[in-house]
């Protein structure tokens, strides 16, 4: 099993790339599983709805996200390449934290079994111009996405800070999200080959 994760702000093109990768794996007959956070199984998808419509305070959100995450991992059965649409980086990036909360998040990350630590994380970094262009072109956001829309700079900074923290053997790959979807897809495939996740 190889784990990879996709991260990035709303409109970064994360979902498009995950869909392209799914197609690629099917075409190449590469065994894979796609999952998303929060959610990922039937019960947790119900909890996803509640969390994403909530007004929970930050500490509660941190704990809800990690509870959902540990629950998902505890029942996880999979071979091949496992693709996470968001994982622990999202909690570090999105939840507003005090210094104490930050330590809590880092400690919770350490509780994740090393077999689930992604070998590669693809992070789609975007500039404000691309964000605004895409925001104007695309439809409405859900409540939770809206809640964080004004936090673009903070969230990108948090992703950037976490990219410098060594977490197991994972390699954090920052991708310029303003490029075309074809170029980004190629960059992802190139990296999967380079790090020997696929041939
Ligand atoms: P997202 O995965 O982008 O789904 P959709 O495409 O349906 O918008 O949205 C999930 C939201 O949850 C997004 O605003 C980020 C947020 N989130 C956190 O704040 N912390 C977390 O730990 C995770 C996994 C998600």
Tag the structure with descriptive keywords.
about 200 residues, alpha/beta, Rossmann fold, five-stranded parallel β-sheet, globular, binds thymidine-5'-diphosphate
* Alpha-carbon distance between the two ends: 15 Å
The biggest beta sheet reads: 5 strands, parallel
What's the SSE pattern? EHEHHEHHEHHHEH
The count of strands amounts to 5
How would you state the average pLDDT, rounded?
A: 96
Low-pLDDT segments, ≥5 res: none
What does this protein structure show overall?
The chain is an alpha/beta fold. It has one domain (2-194): P-loop containing nucleotide triphosphate hydrolases (Rossmann fold, 3-Layer(aba) Sandwich), CATH 3.40.50. It is 52% helix and 15% strand. The protein has 9 helices and 5 strands. The chain has helices at 14-27, 42-52, 58-74, 88-94, 99-110, 128-137, 143-149, 152-163, 181-194, and strands at 2-8, 32-36, 81-85, 120-125, 171-176. A 5-stranded parallel sheet has the order 2-3-1-4-5, sandwiched between helices. Helix 1 (14-27) crosses helix 9, helix 2 packs antiparallel against helix 3 and helix 4 (88-94) crosses helix 8 (152-163). The two termini are 15 Å apart. Thymidine-5'-diphosphate is lined by residues 10, 15, 37-38, 52, 65, 85-86, 90-91, 94-95, 142, 144-145, 148.
